[in-house]
Write a structure and sequence with these properties.
Blueprint (H helix, E strand, L loop, with lengths): L9 H16 L2 E6 L8 E4 L16 E5 L3 H12 L3 E4 L8 H12 L3 E5 L13 H9 L3 E7 L5 E3 L7 E3 L3 E7 L10 H28 L8
Parallel strand pairs: 1-9, 2-5, 2-6, 3-4, 3-5
Antiparallel strand pairs: 6-9, 7-8
Length: 222
């Protein structure tokens, strides 16, 4: 069976996806809650929330780690055109030493990085060791992040990660947890702390969204 998307036409599909998302960008309004004041940090999110990077500030100083798969080629193209720096690979996995070293170099240069901590193929909501190892080696904290909207245009797709993406006019909140450090903790303890922080952000997001809505956050000028 011939795969619809392959190495020969991937650039075409990536360009089409970017044009669609560029149109969606004009209809998407993201506001940040508790955005980290320090720099650099390791932004950590579930794979489902990968497009929440659109709300990050100072994109030119943020590196996004993206898998080397065909799907990753599309995401990479989009992220680069959004102004992010892109690194390809999968930190913490066998054979990923080169990409891990690249990310460490980014952190040492005071550039932040983004990691989908249960990606690229799961297990669902299980924190892998990549972000933890990078944080331990660099001393840079992990900052959990989550995005949320109650609007019907904020869709969850039927994929293993239940990826979320706005489709149409959508007001979204990016919410950030407190920095997590690895000092004095085992990898297992840090993984549990990151997971609990991400689940807690998901739990409190509806109430925080209502608070932001009542304060007319989306009506305020940037």
């Amino acid at each position: 069976m011939v795969r619809l998307i392959n190495r020969n036409n991937i650039k075409y599909f990536a360009a089409v996806v970017y044009r669609v998302l560029k149109l969606q960008e004009k209809l998407t309004f993201i506001k940040n809650i508790n955005y980290p004041k320090q720099d650099p940090v390791i932004f950590a999110m579930w794979h489902a929330n990968q497009f929440s990077v659109h709300g990050l500030e100072n994109r030119g100083n943020v590196n996004v780690l993206i898998s080397t798969s065909l799907d990753g080629d599309i995401v990479s193209y989009v992220c680069e055109n959004w102004g992010f720096k892109v690194k390809r690979g999968s930190a913490g996995k066998k054979g990923a030493i080169a990409s891990t070293l690249q990310l460490l170099e980014c952190l040492k240069n005071n550039e932040s990085i983004v990691l989908m901590v249960d990606g690229p193929r799961g297990p669902f909501h299980e924190v892998k060791k990549g972000a933890i190892a990078l944080s331990r080696d660099s001393g840079v904290p992990i900052v959990p992040m989550h995005w949320y909207s109650p609007e019907n245009t904020f869709k969850a797709f039927n994929s293993w990660d239940k990826m979320k993406c706005p489709v149409g006019i959508c007001h979204i909140m990016n919410i950030y947890g407190d920095p997590i450090y690895t000092d004095g903790k085992t990898d297992e303890e840090v993984a549990k702390e990151v997971k609990e922080a991400l689940l807690e952000l998901e739990r409190i997001a509806p109430a925080k969204y209502e608070e932001a809505k009542k304060s007319n956050l989306w009506k305020k000028t940037k």
